[in-house]
Amino acid sequence: MKINEVSNLTGLPISTLRFYERKNLIPDTFVKRDANNYRIYSEEIVEFLDDVKVLLSVDFSIEELSLLVNQQLNLSYEAKTKMVEQKIKEIEEIQKRLKKSKTFLSAVLEGKANFQTKC
Fold first, then answer.
1. Of 52, 68, 71, 87, which has the maximum CB count within 10 A?
2. Residue burial 94-105, b: 16+ Cβ < 10 Å; e: rest
3. Region 9-30: what's the mean pLDDT?
4. pTM of whole model > 0.90?
5. Backbone dihedral region of 11: left (phi > 0), alpha (psi from -120 to 50 degrees) or beta?
6. Residues in Cβ contact with 13 at an 8 Å cutoff, skipping those fewer than 6 apart
7. For residues 111 and 118, is the Cβ–Cβ distance under 8 A?
8. Distance of CA 26 to the CA centre of its chain
């Protein structure tokens, strides 16, 4: 696939795809070059980029993702595991705060919260 096809299938702008490549976020296994030096992407890139979007949505940084996927950096399996475990802990903390906020807002709607304005 050419870059515009990948862009259409993933909803990511071409500039974002090129940025991801510069940041070593897209492994070479997904991208080849043809005789004219155009990028040719494998079909698996779409699923990979969908996964990247999910990871970015839970606050992985581009740099963290690059560390996870870039085999040339020689980051150990243990280091990658710790990075993912830490992110899971952060997500769990966010879930706790959201649950508490949801409970409070429900109490506000029911008029059971000590809140200055009744809804």
1. 52
2. eeeeeeeeeeee
3. 92
4. no
5. left
6. 7
7. yes
8. 13
